[in-house]
Amino acid sequence: MRNAATPITLIIIGALGLIWYFGWLPDVDSVTSIALIAGGVAILAMDGITKSSIVLGPTLIGVGIAWWLHDQYRMRWTLLISVLLIFAEMALLTAIALFFSTFSSSALWSVVFTLGFFVAGLESEDLRNFGDIVDAPFMAHIVSAIGWVVPAFSAFDVKLQVVHGIHVPAGFVLQTLLYAAIYIGVALAAAVGLFSRREFK
């Protein structure tokens, strides 16, 4: 089956542009949210679970829901951004759990490895700067390398900024979402590669 993510996304963007330009429907925000959600569902339905659809489909659905909540309930964008980043963090954690489940014969070990990655990812910045507090170059290089390999889960936590009304830059949000998408793609590609080479008795 050919990848439907790109044409569906282009069709949605074109349709929204026409609706916005000609003013065919008064409530553009509702149409936008419905189109985004429908596009995400269509991508998942037509492509199934692939490396691109598992990222783009839920992302469109999440953005559509956030758009609708902002339009209907006037929820602050900063709060919706926090929810979107939590959603991306959970998607990343799910991809990592899927990766570990492909080569671990025990569900318990998959949970342990995933939990270990999550805890290490929360402290990834400290791990990267481990050499600043320890006078052991070899160990510092190993710990620093681990800090660069594990996902930086702490980057997705903007709850304090939301609570205190601090502006979250759009560039930071886009960079964090792109980081999650790339990491999810790599984890899923590795999981598919390992699963395809696995021998079943």
Helix content: over 70%
Task: Tell me how many strands there are.
Answer: 0
Classify the secondary structure makeup into a structural class.
Answer: mainly alpha
Low-confidence stretches: none
Topology:
Blueprint: H1 5-22, H2 28-47, H3 53-73, H4 77-103, H5 107-122, H6 124-128, H7 137-149, H8 159-163, H9 170-197
Helix pairs in contact: 1-2, 2-3, 3-4, 4-5, 4-9
Detailed description of the structure:
By secondary structure, the protein is mainly alpha-helical. It has two domains: 1-74, no CATH class; 76-201, no CATH class. It contains nine helices and no strands. 26% of the residues are buried. The model has no long low-confidence stretch (mean pLDDT 79).
Task: Write a compact overview of the structure shown.
The protein has two domains: 1-74, no CATH class; 76-201, no CATH class. The chain contains nine helices and no strands. It has helices at 5-22, 28-47, 53-73, 77-103, 107-122, 124-128, 137-149, 159-163, 170-197.
Keywords summarizing the entry:
globular, 9 helices, 201 residues, mainly alpha, 76% helix, 2 domains
